[in-house]
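name: query_chain
kind: protein
chains: 1
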Amino acid sequence: MVKHDPCAATVEHALQEGAVEHDPCERDHRTTATIGEVDLQLIAQGRQLLLYRCMGGRICHHRGQAGAVFTVWAPAAERVSLVGDFNRWQDTSHPLRRVGAGVWEVFVPALGAGTHYKFAIVDSAGNTVMKADPYGRAMELRPHNASKLVTARHRWRDQQWLAQRGRRRCAQAPISIYEVHLGSWRHCRGAHPGGRDGAASVGAPTSRWLSYRQLAHSLVDYVADMGFTHIELMPVMEHPLDRSWGYQVGGYFAPTSRYGSPDDFRYFIDRCHQCSIGVILDWVPAHFPKDAFGLGRFDGTGLYEHPDPRQGEHRQWGTYIFNYARHEVRNFLIANALYWLDEFHIDGLRCDAVASMLYLDYGANGVNDWVPNRYGGRENLAAVTFLRALNTAVHERFPGVIVIAEESTSWPGVTHPSEAGGLGFDFKWNMGWMHDTLAYFALD
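structure:
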């Protein structure tokens, strides 16, 4: 099981490469309330790949007291406070303190699972914005968007699957993928779409969707009977709109609450593995929406996105583009990918809209709508660096996990190894074949 322990893999790699000076597992993150100095150094350097163990809201014990610690990155903020249902959403009672590397934290006694919270962030102009936790592991059911404290209690039973996966050579194994949007596959009988006033909750009589636990039987049994080897899920990360496929992510670390809790989602994945079915997630590292509660203008500045709109906004989609030139942002995304593999035993990631990441002029309306790279070209060199680092981190820490590129151009070396000048993906979607096939069907 050592091969599947991401902490062990991180330490082993650090010893071999000297890339990390600190064992992130030398302390129990569940019982340590304050972030350590070495963690802060690694965050500042963009090299703490287990960010989800030291950032965000986490239930813990501190100096003998049960409660929760809240940690957030907001370097340009003048003040940060914790607000939630425990303090009537007032921003005066629980201020965070700045601890270094642009990180703020606070420990609050007596808070537990189910607590709803946000960060009230005051920018340099004195404006206050209410932000969900970028590392929040659960969120309220829409239309609400607060983060929620949760604990992981699921007991995994897929050890045999993981051991076999680690020995498998993905390029040589048969693979047949059933792609599905969980909210569209099958609905509860007699349910009004979206429930009363469009705000159904899982398990309610008016709920439209099957829950993760229901899907763990009905969907998984169907896929197994059909002979597929993998289920590919359109984004299950929290997103605000029901009438979407989930590609505008509002909570990168939170499985959507539409279908149940994070542990319910773990149950779904566990049953997939017990039925010898792998799980691939559609993952969106290319862009994020402009919702006020989200990552955009997080501390009053372009933090996760580039401050120059020519480089930080996707005009066609109306979304922000991640700033891959900032190592903290690359770290956030790589840590997010590893989080799903570590905490949820995911077997593969399909990276969405890779072409939009690789080309600086993707979707631009003219020469004045984008900024060339330092060589005068259209290639996004920082995105190339990020994708190579992503694939290297995944393959080193989780042998047998596959990473797929949805790349719609003729970019060279998408599936060549990173060390050989490629991007390091295992597979690439054959978008040209798909479009040609659909065009052929349209002739009938």
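note: The chain is about 25% helix and 20% strand.
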